[in-house]
């Protein structure tokens, strides 16, 4: 089968950083589905895993953690899907990725693809939808269906793939959604996703929020490196509020300002359930099924903003470079194998 892989960890402008390879078609067993991959999306995790380092892989390593496709074969323990089903999923960080014509993935972290979306539109959603859902409704404990209406949520870096779906989920849940963006096109995108307010993360946040009537916010999620915003977040979060983080920290931060507020800090790592084979792995199947139903009902929309075709090393290098530029909006998807 065709695949895109790496053997060395190189800068993305090096043509050897991602290469086209031929690999054996895998055979499913147990709870695995073999999916014929029709579209894939790129995420910051792809660029971080691929980032330059001295390691060399003895065999080609396939990356990719967002896919949509068709179930072609199933393992003997599979009960949720059958051949021919259209599916979408993010996969597991400790298994080969989905940048391949055929991919093995545990059925318990796979969802039925939204009926109203094509493969490219669907591939834009899984990783970010799972991350945002788990953070807002499991880590923070907000009610997905509106019981916490009018609570305030600040989302730092609102125009990326994660912010784009988090804004939509927050609005559907009745939260007051405040996003940050710094360029005219990203401000416009956040508003199109449903943000009630947009503030500039390149400027001090507190005076901008106070001008909007918010002395504090109930919860803050930071979808980028948190260190530059940490002092502002601990100042802005309300007593008994919540701060959510998704990007690993490279510097120590001071938790003491949160003590008197009894405020909490929550890590969200979408791969936790699959990596540790937690007893509730199937929760991701249920979340993706719920997201698909909301898309089909018109309550959520795909965050796709661009496509490249076909899926090959050259186009994936372009996609990685765009993501590494820090200026991408929404999600970029690759479709078809040519």
UniProtKB/TrEMBL annotation:
Belongs to the zinc-containing alcohol dehydrogenase family. Quinone oxidoreductase subfamily. The keyword Cell inner membrane does not apply. Pfam families: ADH_N, ADH_zinc_N_2. It comes from Mizugakiibacter sediminis. InterPro entries: ADH-like_N (IPR013154), ADH_Zn_typ-1 (IPR014182), ER (IPR020843), GroES-like_sf (IPR011032), NAD(P)-bd_dom_sf (IPR036291), Zinc-ADH_QOR/CCCR (IPR051603). Coiled coil: none annotated. Keywords: Metal-binding, NADP, Oxidoreductase, Zinc. Gene3D superfamilies: Medium-chain alcohol dehydrogenases, catalytic domain, NAD(P)-binding Rossmann-like Domain. It comes from the Bacteria. This is Zinc-type alcohol dehydrogenase-like protein. Residues 13-334 form the Enoyl reductase (ER) domain. The keyword Zinc applies. SMART domains: PKS_ER. GO terms for molecular function: oxidoreductase activity; zinc ion binding.
């Amino acid at each position: 089968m065709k695949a895109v892989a790496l053997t060395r960890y190189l800068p993305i402008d090096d043509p050897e950083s991602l290469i086209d390879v031929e690999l054996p078609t895998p055979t499913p067993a147990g709870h695995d589905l073999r999916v014929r991959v029709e579209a894939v999306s790129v995420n910051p995790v792809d660029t971080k895993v691929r980032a330059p380092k001295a390691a060399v892989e003895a065999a080609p390593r396939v990356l990719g953690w967002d896919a949509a496709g068709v179930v072609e074969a199933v393992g003997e323990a599979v009960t949720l899907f059958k051949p021919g089903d259209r599916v979408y999923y993010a996969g597991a960080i400790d298994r080969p990725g989905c940048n391949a014509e055929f991919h093995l993935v545990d059925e318990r972290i796979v969802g039925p693809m939204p009926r109203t979306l094509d493969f490219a539109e669907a591939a834009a959603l899984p990783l970010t939808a799972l991350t945002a859902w788990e953070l807002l409704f499991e880590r923070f404990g907000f009610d997905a269906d509106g019981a916490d209406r009018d609570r305030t949520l600040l989302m730092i870096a609102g125009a990326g793939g994660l912010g784009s779906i988090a804004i939509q989920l927050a609005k559907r849940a009745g939260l007051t959604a405040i996003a940050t963006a710094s360029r005219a096109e990203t401000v416009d995108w956040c508003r199109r996703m449903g943000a009630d307010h947009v503030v500039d993360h390149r400027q001090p946040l507190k005076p901008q929020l106070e001008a909007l009537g918010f002395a504090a916010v109930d919860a803050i999620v930071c979808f980028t490196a948190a260190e530059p915003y940490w002092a502002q977040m601990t100042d802005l979060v309300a007593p008994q509020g919540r701060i959510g983080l998704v990007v690993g920290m490279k510097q120590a931060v001071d938790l003491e300002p949160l003590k008197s507020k009894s405020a909490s800090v929550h890590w969200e790592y979408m791969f936790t359930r699959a990596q540790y084979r937690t007893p509730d792995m199937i929760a991701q199947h249920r979340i993706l099924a719920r997201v698909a139903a909301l898309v089909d009902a018109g309550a959520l929309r795909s965050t796709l903003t661009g496509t490249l075709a076909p899926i090959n090393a050259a186009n994936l290098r372009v996609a990685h470079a765009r993501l590494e530029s820090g200026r991408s909006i929404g999600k970029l998807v690759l479709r078809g194998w040519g």
